[in-house]
Design goal:
Number of strands: 24
Radius of gyration: 24 Å
Distance between the termini: 58 Å
CATH class of the largest domain: Alpha Beta
Structural class: alpha/beta
CATH topology of the largest domain: UDP-N-acetylmuramoyl-L-alanine:D-glutamate ligase
Strand order of the largest sheet: 9-8-7-10-6-11-12-13-14-15-16
Helix content: 25-40%
Number of helices: 16
CATH superfamily of the largest domain: Mur-like, catalytic domain
């Protein structure tokens, strides 16, 4: 592609060299630079791409996009200075792949909890409606029916636009994607044209990256600030920051709620471990999902589908047939007469939601045994909070490993135990080995009890001292059965 054409949507500060040249690829990893490619020097949280400009040139790059012009420039190389190279990369990627997001009806879902469930259910719903659909999610990416392994909640700009371009080539009309706070902050979604945005909720998470809750909130809000007047913004009115998200948005604004007045109102009429009877905008519908948080997720799915022009009754019919997302309140029945639930809950709020839901259904007719840990090399501040949520809502809590990464598992558990008083500690057991923790929980369970295994959900691995080992909570629970 001609470099001048490639730069058409980029705000340029200065140029050194000739832009009337052809480039063969766009790269932000200097190791992947090839002959006559364009290298974009982005400033990451750990590595600064500006330090690798010369390496990219040695590997064949003939043009460089950067925020800081090098003191010594290589001859015959074109340098383009921009204000934010990550933002430029997103727009360059969109241009390189011929603006794929403009050829799809693209809806983004953001929030702390519920992103995967809502995006995946919208993918399933629109597939059932007869459309070819794309999905970008934490669990798996889909191009129509073809599954592609997901490595990040939101991929980098180049991978993201390539996936969207492949969706266009496959004939997809709709695409639903999770939008992480990291992707907004790092401008990975720059250049994308969204037709709608959905906000789920916001609670403490990713403080290791954002440093403060305010920064985290600002990143989420930034997604809605950037929506166009032609798009819709659907927010959870039950979250105290739900309407904050819409304050500066130009999009058409809508709400969903379980508690108050909203454009899309849902009430739980009946609930059990087999599902719920819901009232959705004055129409009753049976669903196989459990819990208030799932009723809220389904309200968002219903609202988004209607806002995208689909028939309300047909949408509700399909919602009644949908099943839960892998590792999200996934219910497994033991032959011994107890119920096991595997859930991805890895924040204090998510854990509280799951535990509260289980206890509401149990109504004292059974005990809750919770297995939970906290990830290594992540926000340490939530560790004592997670332990308190688990112990306060459970008959017995087993604290265990959950992706210790490069930390000592016992150090993580000590951080969790620090949040408990003497009485709370008496209700907990510490078992470092996650397999043994799950075995112990199942051994303690009696008829009518519930074993909750929280934190990993769909993940089928543990990262210990930097090495990925196969480990699937669902497999381990079934072995105990």
């Amino acid at each position: 592609m001609n470099l001048d054409n490639l730069l058409q949507n980029i705000k340029i500060i200065s140029v050194s060299g000739n832009t009337e040249i052809d480039v063969t690829a766009v790269q932000f990893d200097s190791r992947k630079a090839t002959a006559n490619s364009l290298f974009v020097a982005t400033c990451g949280s750990a590595v600064d791409g500006h330090d690798f400009i010369n390496m990219a040139i040695e590997n064949g790059a003939s043009a460089v996009v950067c925020e800081k012009m090098p003191n010594e420039k290589s001859p015959n190389i074109t340098y383009i200075q921009v204000e934010n190279s990550s933002d430029a990369l997103g727009k360059l990627a969109s241009t390189w792949f011929d603006f794929p997001s403009s050829k799809l009806t693209l809806v983004g879902v953001t929030g702390t909890n519920g992103k995967t469930t809502i995006a995946t259910l919208l993918y399933k719903l629109f597939s059932e409606l007869g459309y070819k659909v794309g999905l970008l999610s934490t669990v798996c990416n889909y191009i129509d029916k073809n599954a592609i392994e997901a490595t990040h909640t939101t991929p980098d700009s180049l991978a993201l636009n390539e996936l969207l371009a492949n969706m266009v080539d496959a004939g997809c009309e709709y695409a639903f994607m999770e939008v992480s706070s990291h992707s907004v902050d790092q401008r990975r979604i720059a250049g994308l044209e969204f037709d709608g945005g959905i906000f789920t909720n916001i609670t403490r998470d990713h403080i290791d990256y954002h440093l403060t809750f305010e920064n985290y909130l600002k990143a989420k809000k930034g997604f809605f600030d950037a929506l166009s007047a032609d798009s819709f913004a659907l927010t959870n009115a039950d979250d105290k920051n739900g309407l904050v998200m819409l304050q500066n948005s130009k999009a058409r604004k809508y709400t969903y709620s379980l508690r108050g007045m909203a454009d899309f109102k849902t009430k739980i009429l009946e609930h059990g471990f087999d599902g719920m009877l819901l009232d959705m905008n004055d129409r009753e519908v049976n669903v196989s999902f459990i819990g208030k948080f799932n009723a809220s997720n389904l309200s968002a799915v219903f609202g988004a589908a209607v806002l995208l022009g689909q028939d309300e009754m047909e949408v509700l019919r399909i919602i009644s047939s949908l099943s839960s997302v892998s590792g999200r309140f996934e219910t497994l029945r033991a032959p011994q007469g107890f119920t096991a639930i595997v859930d991805y809950a890895h924040t204090p709020d998510a854990l509280n939601n799951v535990i509260s839901t289980i206890n509401q259904i149990l109504e004292g007719n059974g005990r809750l045994i919770t297995v939970v840990g906290c990830g290594g090399n992540r926000d340490k501040g939530k560790r004592p909070m997670m332990a308190r949520e688990a112990v306060d809502g459970s008959w017995k809590t087993i604290l265990t490993s959950d992706n210790p990464r490069n930390e000592e598992p016992q150090d993580i558990l000590n951080d969790m135990l620090a949040g408990l008083d003497v009485i709370q500690k008496s209700k907990s057991i510490t078992i470092v080995d996650r397999r043994e923790a799950i075995k112990t929980a199942c051994a303690l369970a009696q008829v009518g009890d519930v074993v909750l295994v929280a934190g990993k959900g769909h993940e089928d691995y543990q990262i210990i001292q930097g090495v990925k080992h196969h480990f699937d909570d669902r497999e381990e629970v079934k072995k105990c059965f």
